[in-house]
UniProtKB/TrEMBL annotation:
GO biological-process terms attached to the record: fatty acid biosynthetic process
Keyword Repressor attributed: no
Gene3D superfamilies linked: 3.40.47.10
Coiled coil segments of this chain: none
Biochemical pathway: Lipid metabolism; fatty acid biosynthesis
Protein name per its UniProtKB record: Ketosynthase family 3 (KS3) domain-containing protein
Length: 78
């Protein structure tokens, strides 16, 4: 895990809540900072469609971009 690789001390947590994992992880870090449990935090997130079945399901439901580009919160978003 990254915390061991970089020799970072303190809690190391994996969050899997589908599309909201990064947001939930960020909220957990903010709460720990506010509560004085930690002095700093590193939070990261990634979304990965690791199977053809997931990709086909998302495509059928119109969740995927038709242009293979991302313009989150932009008028070009599709």
């Amino acid at each position: 895990n990254l915390s061991q690789f970089f020799d970072v001390r303190g809690p190391s947590v994996v969050v899997d809540t589908a599309c909201s994992s990064a947001l939930v992880g960020m909220n957990m870090a903010i709460q720990a900072l506010r509560g004085g449990d930690i002095q700093s935090a590193i939070v990261g997130g990634v979304s990965l469609l690791s199977s053809d079945a997931s990709h086909r399901l998302f495509d059928r439901r119109g969740i995927l971009s038709k242009h293979s580009s991302f313009h989150v919160f932009d008028e070009r978003a599709d």
